[in-house]
Design a protein that fits this description.
By secondary structure, the chain is α+β, with helices and mostly antiparallel strands. The protein folds into two domains: 2-99, Sandwich (Immunoglobulin-like), CATH 2.60.40; 109-233. The protein contains three helices and seven strands, in the order βββββββααα. A four-stranded antiparallel sheet has the order 4-3-6-7, with no helix packed on it. It has a three-stranded antiparallel sheet with strand order 1-2-5, with no helix packed on it.
Length: 243
């Protein structure tokens, strides 16, 4: 039997680093250790070469993948399975994992878990709304910026053409006057649209701040689910949606 301790070493809003300690209690030595996420998807494998003790870090784990499990294989091929209770660690916990009963009856009667899951569904919907808002404003800003760039190029070309044709008496000067008017109009429109680009940029920055707040709320909601629900009771996706 291999004894595990999974401890949060560093964590921020989105990812965490976990320190894993594996201690062989059977005397055969540790062949390897594997870490799994809440869906039992492998995250990391560490080869221990039959050592009696293994300690390592697993970095950049998305918070939505908690709680974690560990599996150990001894050098005599005995396996400590990943459903061992003390190999479980929820977000925010600092210390060995704890057992969590996950019977169907417990899941059905756990109102706190259901409320937490409803909260993360709402938080996910808010993120999707904010993503739509950010993408729409960014698209509008980029369209205006493209138009501004094109108008500045056009105005520069017209001014250059005006300078060239104005050297020709009468006809050239008349054509130069027309080009000057058109170039001035193009420049004026470009300046006007530049102001609109700045306004859209300010709107975009505000929308991005709202999106960041929504992401923080989602992380808090995911932590609430992990605290309130057994891993086997969780029926919602804890992975944060991307824009």
């Amino acid at each position: 039997m291999i004894e595990f301790h999974l401890l949060l070493r560093e964590a921020d809003t989105f990812v965490a680093t976990v320190r894993v300690i594996a201690i062989d209690r059977g005397g055969a030595g540790i062949r390897r250790v594997r870490i799994f996420d809440r869906s039992h998807v492998p995250i990391h494998e560490q080869i221990a070469n039959c050592a009696p003790y293994s300690e390592f870090l697993v970095e950049s784990i998305e918070r939505g993948r908690f709680p974690l499990f560990a599996e150990g294989v001894e050098c005599n091929d005995a396996i400590t399975p990943p459903d061992t209770p003390y190999a479980l660690i929820p977000p925010g916990m600092d210390g060995p994992g704890i057992p969590t009963p996950c019977s169907p009856l417990f899941c059905a009667e756990n109102a706190a878990c259901r409320d937490a899951e409803a909260g993360i569904v709402r938080a996910r919907n808010v993120i999707l709304e904010r993503c739509t808002e950010v993408n729409s404003i960014r698209s509008t800003r980029d369209a205006y910026a493209t138009a501004v760039a094109a108008l500045f190029v056009l105005a520069a070309a017209l001014y250059a053409a005006m300078a060239a044709v104005s050297a020709v008496p009468i006809v050239g000067q008349a054509l130069g006057a027309v080009l000057l008017v058109i170039a001035t109009i193009a420049l004026g429109v470009a300046i006007g649209l530049s102001i609109r680009v700045l306004r859209e940029q300010l709107r975009l920055e505000e929308a991005q701040r709202r999106l960041e707040d929504a992401r923080k709320n989602f992380t808090s909601a995911a932590d609430a689910v992990a605290r309130s629900c057994c891993p086997g009771c969780i029926s919602v996706d804890l992975t944060q949606p991307a824009c």
